[in-house]
Predict the structure.
Amino acid sequence: MRVNDRIRVSQIRLIDEKNTQLGIVDTAEALNRAREAGVDLVEVSPTAQPPVCRLMDYGKWLYEQKRKEHIAHKKQHAVVLKEIRLRPKIDPHDQTIKLNHARKFLEKGHRVQFTMLFRGREMVHIDHGYALMEDISRLLQDVAKVEKGAMTRGRRMVMIIVPK
């Protein structure tokens, strides 16, 4: 879009403030109409034959576009993945604290990834890790559902849960 004096063609197709087509007019006449109405002459489609121009308050239009963009950006919600790390030998009290953290994350609408790390001989007892992950999913089933069940990747076990 270009405003007022940059239009270099002798004739243009003119649209007024109420979106009614006024037809093909001379550029000088269109500029005079814009000055009389106290608005800008804005080139909407420069590639058309003849170019299309509109009588409008360009500053007000820019403000409204910026406002619409701001409102659209305000309504967006970025999905965040929060990670909680565990060990297979976690104390029951520590487990409840981690579950409370996960519950808060889920209430805010975030996804939560539980990562259980196995060291050394703990790899022999992976079944204990699966049981712990099942226990976590059971305790959080009132606020969340399991998106990806517990899967083992090397020395890590990962489970992702999302809010209901």
Remarks:
- The longest strand covers residues 144-153.
- Residues 98 and 124 are 24 Å apart (CA to CA).
